[in-house]
Batch of 3 targets.
Target 1
Amino acid sequence: MRPHQLRPNLAISALVDELQVRCAEKCGWVGQWSDRRAHGLECPVRLLREADAKLSVERRGEAASAQARAEAFAAQQALVLAEQASNEMRAALEQAQLDAERQRKSFAEAHRADVTRLTVMLDQERDVRETLQSDVRILQLALDEQCRLAKLRAARDQDEAMATCAAVRATRKRKAEHPPGPIQIFVKSYAGRTLTRTVLPA
């Protein structure tokens, strides 16, 4: 392949053109690679060197004037670059402050949302606990009432049983002391007569 057949890569060329470079003459200029040739035409150091080269054919006054202009231009360029750097730093600081403020607000909102959610959960838990405590109290009262009624029924049944046992014992005692005599049964027949039957106790 011959040199004239080579084709540059446009993407790489664009990236190279955007590279930040400094002036080879060390005048303080910083710019893109694509602007270096344009700067070379007005580089104060180069102009100064050319002015120095012309000192042999020009008067010293003209050389001094050119040098002064070159130094003034270099100082102006340095001032412009410093101002640009200051503006960039100020913009970066303001952006960082804005980002920090947004992040702080986001954290504060998230914290408030968490606090609200936890408060709601605590309220719900307290309501459930109070409901359970109320149900337990109601069940305890019902259980106590049932126990009281059961004790009353047991006492009543016991009293009735004791009274029945006492009546049975008294009846048996009476029967033992006064045995029953013969029992007479009177039966009226269809003929109108009254029949008498005597039954002896066992």
Note: The longest helix spans residues 60-177.
Target 2
Amino acid sequence: INAEYMGLLIWRVDARIVFANAEFVRDTIDQLVTQRKQVGVRFFILDCRGVNTIDSTALHMLDKLAGSLYENRVQLMLCNVKGPVRDMLGRVYPKQVVGKLRFYSDINSAISWCHNRLEVEMQTEDKEEVCWNPEYRC
């Protein structure tokens, strides 16, 4: 784990994500979130600056992981995604925001989005609407 803030985990992957390690990546993220669930993990940022390659197995894994985390009220985000990986992801996720999975150009943008989301939630009575409506924009 690279960083931990209130309600936010950041983990950097320094390898390609392919069939050989996709299960390891998924299991590691699940384990990190589970270990910290009692402190209220709400956002998981996967820093992809070290990821040069991603294959279809990894894409499928990310999609399933995003869904399972989302069901448990944890938003999965990717940041610092390199060109070839971004192109591959773009074929599957043509928009920046696709419900359960969000993309950011850098880690600061992802962290800012999380902090804005938490601030707005604290000022709003309908916290479920703010945090889990993918159409809501901070």
Note: The longest strand covers residues 8-12.
Target 3
Amino acid sequence: TQSTWQKKRHMIVESFKRRARKLKKKLAEESDLQKRWKLHAELLAVDEEKKRSIIYDLDQKEEIAVETIKQNPRYIYSYAKRLSRTKTNIAPIRRSDGSLATNSTEKAQLLQNQYVTVFSEPACVKVEECLRWTKTDSVETLEDILLSHEDFVAALKEIAPYGAAPDGDIPARILYDCRAQLAH
């Protein structure tokens, strides 16, 4: 489905095309040199008006994009992608044996495997295996760790504001924005 803006833009472009076709037809049929000159000037004016309309539309879309980027900096990537004329492909990916995978299906599978290894369900993780390096004779508890107000704020400041959070957890943006209040 087209957005309202796209429908409006299409109607305006079609209007310019119709006007230009009519003028070109009149220009082809006219034999009087003065009238041909006037029709030609009118055709150039329609073309100039069309250019101004397109530039105005692009400026409006850019202003909207700038306002959106102020709220969500990641929007710049989708905006730039829409405006780009060349499509980039995914670069070759190294297999576990060091060779390069160039086939799209194989690259997708390798990326999926990477995704699965990074984002795993906590219930499926082998906790003992993850914690084996922490087993020593003296076990420190959370009470033994001293964390200053500044250290806590600095640690929360390192959180990527738009980082993903598991379902049910506090979103990273809230932790980032409220770091000073949480430190109290």
Note: Strands lie at 93-94, 100-101.
